[in-house]
């Protein structure tokens, strides 16, 4: 089911028209000796809905930057048809924009001043299922929404703002970078329905196979090993089936070639030993073996998965670790205080649930800071906090510095061999252990955050959407580690299949 089968593509997508983006032998690298793309060629046609997939750090977001003109290739040609407008829905809101008002945030999407920006904002907020009245702190009208600071929105609401910031530009080509991150079930369903009915061209980066399979016509797969793009028709499940069949075929062919090569070499040795004219026969046998060796193909390598790991808990945990007697939520833009009876000892796992915007992240932040009213963490408890925006990481630190500080915080002396061993388990190898955190992909930041938890040995583990940005191959391994964690744990996740793999002892529903 490769893209060369044009009739299949046209059958699935009858409204597809001319090619609007073409990569022709494009190569790109970051800095010195960090290649991302190696003579990559692919096309995107008008009306096509494509998925861009690949391992964390392979360079998917870089391709978005190349398409939108933020980066320039080292060689090759990127041709975007004249007049085609492009807008990108980014993974996260940049730090320099988090303090803007909603109006300022949307105005930055345009090069020139837009005088009717407020009604246009209201229109796109409706599209992404963010009702203006619900977004106001007091529910008192649209004006307050437009003046509200972006950082006051929940992670799920910020994800919708990012999508809306792309839609307000009404682009011909919509680039979506991990659009389901932080979205609750209702948000993902709404986005899926929107994309199914969307008439323009879409390219999506996502690790959510179920979401992608609902609307995509094909897959662009960036191979982290070859630095090439493989282009397929069909959804992700079709691609996996196609790749598996190809790998099996290549392995079978290679096995047969190896058998023939060995036979020729054995014959050559026999003839060479006999001497005389048979030495010429032996030479021809060796030449034939060399020809066969050239026919051996490089079998496509699968994305690596992280190694199974354990998050050690703080030693000597005794008695109550966390008590929650009350908490606050947001309802219709108003703060509501609620009573609770939650007590966590070691080996107790709590799932925190509720829709986007109700206050889950706020509650976790208060618990992690130790300044929460109605919530008390036992003195001396070490807290391991995985934030969905990775703001617990210092983006100016190198990976080495970040992991070193985590090891010291976990009560260990700096043991570089152990630290590098833990890092390698999370695919953090020598090639980027000296890289600044801020220069990593979002998925790589997530793996660094998990490596830090292993080294910190927390007594209370707080996880806010730990599946965001993470390659789907890693999720069962992460779920097993959380399931086996022996300390107290609080988890927020909108991915039911992930949560099902983890032992949950208590559930706190902030909406009920």
Question: Would you mind describing this structure in some detail?
Answer:
With 512 residues, the chain is of the alpha/beta class. Among the domains are: 98-167; 240-295; 322-509, Rossmann fold (3-Layer(aba) Sandwich), CATH 3.40.50. 37% of the residues lie in helices and 21% in strands. The protein is built from 17 helices and 17 strands. Strand 15 (460-464), helix 16 (475-483) and strand 16 form a beta-alpha-beta unit. Helix 13 runs parallel beside helix 15 (442-456). The radius of gyration is 27 Å and the shape is globular. The protein starts with 5 loop residues before the first helix and ends with a strand.
Instruction: State the CATH topology of the domain at 322-509.
Output: Rossmann fold
In CATH terms, the superfamily of the domain at 322-509 is P-loop containing nucleotide triphosphate hydrolases
| Number of discrete helical segments | 17
Identify the strand order in the major beta sheet: 5-6-7-3-8-9
> Poorly predicted ranges (pLDDT <50, ≥5 residues)?
1-14, 138-143
Number of strands: 17
Beta-strand content estimate: 15-25%
Distance between the termini: 48 Å
Main pleated-sheet profile:
6 strands, mixed
Supply the helix-strand structural class: alpha/beta
CATH architecture of the domain at 322-509: 3-Layer(aba) Sandwich
Shape: globular
Overall CATH class of the domain at 322-509: Alpha Beta
What Rg do the Cα atoms give? 27 Å
Average pLDDT reading: 84
Task: Report the helical percentage.
Answer: 25-40%
Write the layout of secondary structure elements.
Elements: H1 6-12, E1 19-29, E2 35-45, E3 49-54, H2 60-68, E4 75-80, E5 86-89, H3 102-107, H4 117-127, H5 132-135, H6 142-146, H7 155-167, E6 173-177, H8 185-197, E7 201-205, H9 209-213, E8 218-222, E9 229-233, H10 236-274, H11 278-295, E10 322-331, E11 334-344, E12 349-353, H12 360-369, E13 375-377, E14 383-386, H13 399-409, H14 416-425, H15 442-456, E15 460-464, H16 475-483, E16 488-492, H17 496-499, E17 506-509
Parallel strand pairs: 3-7, 3-8, 5-6, 6-7, 12-16, 12-17, 14-15, 15-16
Antiparallel strand pairs: 1-2, 1-4, 8-9, 10-11, 10-13
Helix pairs in contact: 4-7, 10-11, 13-15, 14-15
């Amino acid at each position: 089911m490769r893209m060369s089968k044009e009739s299949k593509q046209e059958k699935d997508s009858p409204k597809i028209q001319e090619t609007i983006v073409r990569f022709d032998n494009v190569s790109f690298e970051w800095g010195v000796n960090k290649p991302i793309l190696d003579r990559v060629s692919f096309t995107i046609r008008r009306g096509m809905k494509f998925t861009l997939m690949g391992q964390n750090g392979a360079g998917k977001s870089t391709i978005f930057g190349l398409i939108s003109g933020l980066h320039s290739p080292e060689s090759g040609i990127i041709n975007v048809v004249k007049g085609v407008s492009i807008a990108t829905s980014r993974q996260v809101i940049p730090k320099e924009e988090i303090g803007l008002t909603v109006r300022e945030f949307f105005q930055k999407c345009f090069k020139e001043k837009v005088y009717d920006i407020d009604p246009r904002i209201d229109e796109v907020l409706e599209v992404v299922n963010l009702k203006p009245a619900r977004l106001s702190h007091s529910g008192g009208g649209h004006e307050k929404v437009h003046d509200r600071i972006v950082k006051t929105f929940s992670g799920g609401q910020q994800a919708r703002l990012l999508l809306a910031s792309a839609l307000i530009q009404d682009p011909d080509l919509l680039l979506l970078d991990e659009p389901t991150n932080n979205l609750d079930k209702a948000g993902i369903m709404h986005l899926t329905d929107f994309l199914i009915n969307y008439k323009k061209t879409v390219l999506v980066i996502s690790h959510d196979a179920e979401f992608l399979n609902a609307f995509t016509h094909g897959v662009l797969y960036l191979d982290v090993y070859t630095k090439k793009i493989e282009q397929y028709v069909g959804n992700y499940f079709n691609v996996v089936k196609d790749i598996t069949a190809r790998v099996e075929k290549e392995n079978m062919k290679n096995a047969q070639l190896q058998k023939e090569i060995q036979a020729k070499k054995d014959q050559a040795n026999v003839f060479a030993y006999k001497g005389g004219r048979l030495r010429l026969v032996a030479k021809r046998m060796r030449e034939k073996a060399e020809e066969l060796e050239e026919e051996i193909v490089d079998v496509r390598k699968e994305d690596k998965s992280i190694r199974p790991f354990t998050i050690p808990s703080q030693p000597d945990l005794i008695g109550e670790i966390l008590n929650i007697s009350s908490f606050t939520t947001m309802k219709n833009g108003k703060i509501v205080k609620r009573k609770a009876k939650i007590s966590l000892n070691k080996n107790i796992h709590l799932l925190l649930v509720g829709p986007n915007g109700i206050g889950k992240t706020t509650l976790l932040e208060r618990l992690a800071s130790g300044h929460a009213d109605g919530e008390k963490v036992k003195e001396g408890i070490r807290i391991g906090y995985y934030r969905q925006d990775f703001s617990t990481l210092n983006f100016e630190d190198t990976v080495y510095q970040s992991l070193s500080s985590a090891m010291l915080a976990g009560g260990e002396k700096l043991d570089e061999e152990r630290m590098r061993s833990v890092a390698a388990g999370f695919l953090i190898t020598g090639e980027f252990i000296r890289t600044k955190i801020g220069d990593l992909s979002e998925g790589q930041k997530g793996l660094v955050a998990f490596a830090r938890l292993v080294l910190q040995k927390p007594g209370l583990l707080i996880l806010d959407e730990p599946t965001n940005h993470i390659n789907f191959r890693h999720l069962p391994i992460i779920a097993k580690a959380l399931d086996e964690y022996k300390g107290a744990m609080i988890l927020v996740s909108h991915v039911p299949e992930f949560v099902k793999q983890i032992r949950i002892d208590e559930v706190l529903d902030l909406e009920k």
